[in-house]
Amino acid sequence: MTRRRQYGELANLLQGVVNVLEHFNKYMGIPQIRQLSERVKAAQNELGQQILADFEEAFPSQGTKRSAGPSNVLRDACLVANVLDPRIKQEIIKKFIKQHLSEYLVLFQENQDVAWLDKIDRRYAWIKRQLVDYEEKYGRMFPGEWCMTERIAVDFCHITRMELGKIMRTRAREIEVKLLLFAIQRTTNFEGLLAKRFSGSTLTETVTKKPDPPPVSTNPFLEEESTMDEEETPSERLDIDKPQKPKIPNNPFHGIVSKCFEPHLYVYIESQDRNLGELIDRFVGDFKAQGPPKPNVDEGGAVLPSCADLFVYYKKCMVQCSQLSTGEPMIALTTIFQKYLREYAWKILSGNLPKTTNTSSSGLTITSLLKEKDGSEVAKFTLEELCLICSILSTAEYCLATTQQVRTLQPSSETDPWGFATCQF
């Protein structure tokens, strides 16, 4: 039967023999039983080598020649492989996938134009076609529990991550923030597509538990995305790219390719640094051009609109960065946030306090306003100046309250995870 390759009948017989031998494991001290067990193992080894040779002939390692369709002999051989040493099954899977993806390595070599980030869509279009081709030609050849379609996709992802990492290290100077975000978006979309199609059972990583939803708060960092998108503030025009909705937390394929972009996220952080600098300069220019808020007894303590714009922009940056990474890049981004909170405090708040003849050479500050001055003459302010002072104090209070709420986003942390405690208003 082995020589005639009657694998279908062999699979049933071999499974029965293996099951019977399991009952005699404790009797291996008997010579006849031990000899019988050794003969069965020798037959299994010979059968395994023959099956590997059959697959090598049907799917040669050299070249890309493939059979026209599934073979009944090979399909039955897979059933036999399930009974043999697991290494036989693993070798079949490894060789088949390697041969199936050999064309990909040739088409998307590092020196090819289609290998760069601006044409990353072509990589994912190629694997989609290959998976459809596999299902049509070989879907019935391998047992369903082998999850061959998913294995092909996973190996493609591992290869793509390594190849993209290699080419980005070589051409790091050519990476621009728009190009980087484009590649990341297309990649995360592909990873989401994999999560819809496959279970992730072939992955070694464990699936993370879906986190509980955050509590309701007035903090703009915790508002619903829909309310944020209804009104566009002037600061939103500085966005490089509108952040997408947060990724599905329980996607087992998240990061399987996109992890390669993390070492290059400094490009994104530097871009946000420049954008926030421009945003603060715009706030300063708008304040000089439009002047302080108009005096109004009822609304004298209104928060400056630029403050809300700043925190809305912060939120968008955090949402976008959390989709890219929650590691070192996120920490670097919070350092940028600290920097521009201080800039805002000095240039917009303290820098626009009214000047008086009674103040020291350092000028009027928020701290000096809040201190009681025993035995000293109280400075006199006009109605416009009082409205401005109230507005600045309200804005400072809003900034302080909001940063404290951001710090509580990680209540289990004993230290300040964002470093906002050092931002004095």
Key words describing this protein structure:
425 residues, mainly alpha, 14 helices, disordered C terminus, VPS53 subunit of GARP complex, Vps53, Vps53_N
Characterization of this structure:
This protein is mostly helical and 425 residues long. Helix content is 57%, strand content 0%. It is built from 14 helices and no strands. It has helices spanning 7-22, 31-58, 72-81, 86-100, 102-107, 120-138, 148-170, 177-197, 225-230, 266-290, 305-324, 328-349, 366-370, 383-407. The radius of gyration is 33 Å and the shape is elongated. The relative contact order is 0.07. One of its GO terms (cellular component) is cytosol. Residues 1-287 form the Vps53 N-terminal domain. This is VPS53 subunit of GARP complex.
Q: How many DSSP E strands?
A: 0
Q: Which blocks of ≥5 consecutive residues have pLDDT under 50?
A: 205-212, 214-248, 410-425
Whole-Å distance between the termini? 86 Å
Shape: elongated
Tally of helical segments: 14
Oligomeric state of shown chains: single chain
Query: Which series of helices and strands comes N to C?
Result: HHHHHHHHHHHHHH
| Strand residue content | under 5%
Largest sheet, in brief, is: none
CA-based gyration radius: 33 Å
Helix-strand makeup class: mainly alpha
Pfam families: Vps53_N (PF04100)
Biased composition (Basic and acidic residues): 234-244
GO cellular component, one term: cytosol
Protein name: VPS53 subunit of GARP complex
